[in-house]
Amino acid sequence: MFTGIVEELGTVEAIEHQGDAIRLTVRAATVLEDAGLGDSISVNGCCLTVVTHDGVLWTADVMQETLDKTSLHGVQPGDRVNLERAVTADKRLGGHIVQGHVDAVGHVVRRHPSEHWEVVEVSMPPSLGRYLVDKGSITVDGVSLTVVEAGAESFTVSLIPETLARTTLGLRQPGDRVNLEVDILAKHVEKLLAAHLGPSAGTTGTTGTHRSTEGATS
User: Fold this and answer.
1) Residue 186, C-beta contacts closer than 8 angstroms, at least 6 positions apart
2) Among residues 41, 76, 91, 130, which is most buried (max CB within 10 A)?
């Protein structure tokens, strides 16, 4: 589990294609300080498992399901990526509960810069709309953000200078793909209500099947 507070920007060093998977090598520092083999690290919101590391570079195997359902498909050497270690019980929950299981891929629609912050609109599949509320939580590329305005097929977030400088969201341009994970608590509430009120209360939909990262299977 993660909190959506990015610890550092890593750099993709190499990609080894393995047919129905890739081996991803990432250069990092902070997230490797206490990393062990088998530990989980969030990469742009995808929970991946550390296969090897030498204190500077670490590798993860990314299966086809993850490539099909996340923006890790198409990542190239030199790309910057948001990194976060799995949270421990003695740490503050600075963002919100994030599983690292991507629900869908959205796109940056537009950016509205201002003097001290930037409003960014992101598209999403209509099936995710019911999980978003104004001032609720959403994870974009592994970053815990507060929804400013939730629409039927898009939402807006306000990015402060710290977020723009320390995450890939400062680099994303209109048309770029981003990983989305909705608040897991909203899914649980929906399922509990459906059990008592019937199908008309909503179902977990297909988003539950999009737990497509290695953290769901390792």
Assistant:
1) 131, 136
2) 41
Rounded Cα distance, 136 and 72, in Å? 26
Domain termination residue (choose one: 52, 85, 118): 85
- Which CATH number belongs to the domain containing residue 78 in this structure? 2.40.30.20
The residue whose two tokens read 């929950």 is 93
2 in a structural domain: no
- Cβ atoms of 99 and 180 within 8 Å: the answer is no
pTM: 0.87
pLDDT of 51 higher than 90: yes
- Among candidates 54, 45, 184, 200, which has minimal Cα distance to 128? 184
Counted domains in the chain: 2
What's at 114, amino acid-wise? S
Q: Is the pLDDT of residue 216 over 60?
A: no
pLDDT bucket at 62, cuts 50 / 70 / 90: very high
> Among residues 75, 166, 154, 68, which one has the least CA distance to residue 108?
154
Cα–Cα distance, 66 to 75 (Å, whole number): 12
C-alpha dist (Å) from residue 14 to 11, 26, 69, 148, 215: 9, 7, 21, 37, 21
Residue among 72, 57, 208, 210 nearest 142 (CA): 72
Confidence band (pLDDT; 50, 70, 90) for 121? Answer: very high
